[in-house]
Amino acid sequence: MTMTMNNEQPTTNNELLTLQGIEKAFFGVKVLKGVNFTVPVGGMVGLVGENGAGKSTLVNILGGNLQPEVGALRFAGADYAPQNPQDAARSGIAFIHQELNLFPNLTIAENIFLTRFPRTRATPFIQRGEMHERAAELLHEVGLEIPPHRLVETLSAGERQLVEIAKALSIEARLIIFDEPTTSLSERETARLFALIARLRASGLAMIYISHTLADVFRLCDDIVVLRDGEVVGAGATKTFTTEKLVSLMVGRTMSQLFPERRASLGTNGANAPQAEQCSALLDVRDVSQPGVVENISFTLHRGEVLGLSGLMGAGRSELARILFGLDPRQHGEVRLAGEVLHRLSPRNLIEHGVAFLTENRRSEGLCLDAAVADNLALVTLPQHGRTPVRWLLRDSWQAAITRIRSVVQLDPKTSDTQPVRTLSGGNQQKVVLGKWLLSQPKLLILDEPTRGIDVGAKFEIYRLIHQLADQGAGVLVISSEMEELMGLCDRILVMRSGRLVDDLPRDQFDRERILAAALGTTKEMAS
Amino acid sequence: MNRASQRLLDFAPLLLFVAVLAFFGMQSGKFLEPRNLVNIVVQASSTGIVAVGMTFVLLTAGVDLSVGAIMFVAAAIAGKMALAGWPLPFALLVMVGVALVFGAFNAFFVTRVRVAAFIVTLATLFIGRGLGLRITETRALTLPDSFLQIGSARFLSVPLPAWLFAGVLIVAHLVLTRTPFGRQVFAVGHDAEMAKKAGIRTGRVLAAVYLISGVCAAIAAMVTLGQLGAVSPKFGEQKEFAAIAAAVLGGTSLFGGRGAVLPGTLLGALLIQTIENGLVVMNANPYLYPMVTSAVIFAAVLLESLRKRVR
A interface mutation test: which of B177, B178, B188 has the most A CBs within 10 A? Predict the structure, then answer.
């Protein structure tokens, strides 16, 4: 601390990182709406918020992967406008991400010094002795007693994270940003990480700690910043918050989104369609488990029901969907579809049984981006148009089907059938994916983040389609990270946490705080 | 169990090599004589040197199909120069220059225009072969004896090609394992996007491997010229496949990030040459050679995919 304190702004010299009015939009949708907060020198700030609150965008801006449209950053008393990850590293900001950025085929020491190898003087060669010595010192600092010449692929997730921290120390970082650091760690590894965090803080390092595990945030942080819909809705010393207050701040109160009216809803009390009640179980999942992914998942999805699957990132929702569609293996568990036990789950088999699966990775898994709209639409049902003995494609029936489905999903009439899907907007792309599956007249739809990256108008149309399908007797399983979407769309919501189903709410019991609390695990009241 | 099979697969090239040596040794007494073994190394040196350059490219998850064509063009130009009376060292220097031009062409399109390496180098392959045919007017050039001396010169009673091969191997090994560039080649090969985020100049690393591959092809062309003393229209033809096979057989992954020139590529090149040499010593039908070689290449790719699956 210098003696020349500025009296008008007494805190200035104490601030390490300052964010001033940071704004960022993607495709016209504002993700950050003027974010302000500061991290004091040597301080530890917890950053919490729901999925999609804008935390990742913020982290990407701090790391130089994205640039804000409006607003300014100051770090260590100077303007900070990183254009790339190297700028961030040079300034002394290090990141510990959920998925680690280490090269498994290189050694620990090589990973630490990848762009700054110590060299033997006057030769092009790496000074290995010095590199290993320095790496060993850094590893010792983070409490990892492993020879630095070991390959990273031989390390556990927790050990790899410690290597990342050692790497952060090697660039003499003054601020370390942890983004969900404990998701892939065992309890012992987590305890070790927390002990290390305490040691590093004692040496004056500042940190931003992002986590859904609120108990950890309370335990570790001096200050907490709550982000909701791209805005800071709460900030202050940790002791001024309680878990309940934090959750209600994260959740907010506004129900801004519009959802179409449901014509025949059966979620509320099941009063309608009594005769359908006995045979209405469409998908029956019993004790489906896959170690490390999901555990003892059991639920029933009825005909005409829209069932939501809520939970935090990494809770195992998409993994469960992939297992149900036969994309990933399951160790045990039984899946019945319309009463019939499906022994072998494979996409082909399931498609034949009338199951459709809309992946969360629309661009990489859901579409052939460079193929035409019509070709993408026809992909699943192509064999239906080639039933002649030589499997010749019947152009007319094919074309008729495509024209029909285009109007069903209300694909933008300006797009042509021959246009590559890549050139379509996100909403129209998603309609193509939906149309492709609707052509197969599915009995069961599994929709993983069906409205991700889609504008509000297209969202509404997709909701309307989902309801229409349910009204016609199909079952729909919807995974979404937007809680409002699930609450507006579904008849019933299941909540997952750490690979398990922890709550089951019918429509009349929908409660944002209860869902979030179950997803976060901050409460004991769970479905038994 | 898994670990055991993993180690077995890692040692597979070596085991295969020993098995092949033993097999041919039993077939013919002459096979295991030191003279024949040295002969195998000498015969393997041209392909081996190309394979060393190829290993660099494969480590970045790329491929260089143009090496055989580069050899042809470089040899054709050097041959013409030698016949026109230029001094030998100058002709050799020009060969390296030609290879660098081709390498730079590949590098530019791979790193700047971002065309798939397979496509770029396939194009260079045809450009090179066409150019070579034009330069030689599709006739075989018979070169002055000065070239043959490269092939027959001996140092400590070991022929020069073997020394060149050893030199290239050792330099490449040191570069790959002991220099920052070498380690970054492995990083880029594992995940180029991640490497870029880690601050590696991936463009430079990628460009360098295509230049290295070109230079290795030029050195291999010198060795072949020294052994044949002539440039036929088939000079260097299909060298790329032998080189890829040698590198992959030696444990280098086609998907990048894994591999080594020592012992990997050395063993791979020796293995392929040993089989061919053994077939000659056995007086096998010459039409059999390509079939046996392709069976070996198939085995190499099979090993590679098994290795991946165990991992």
Answer: B178
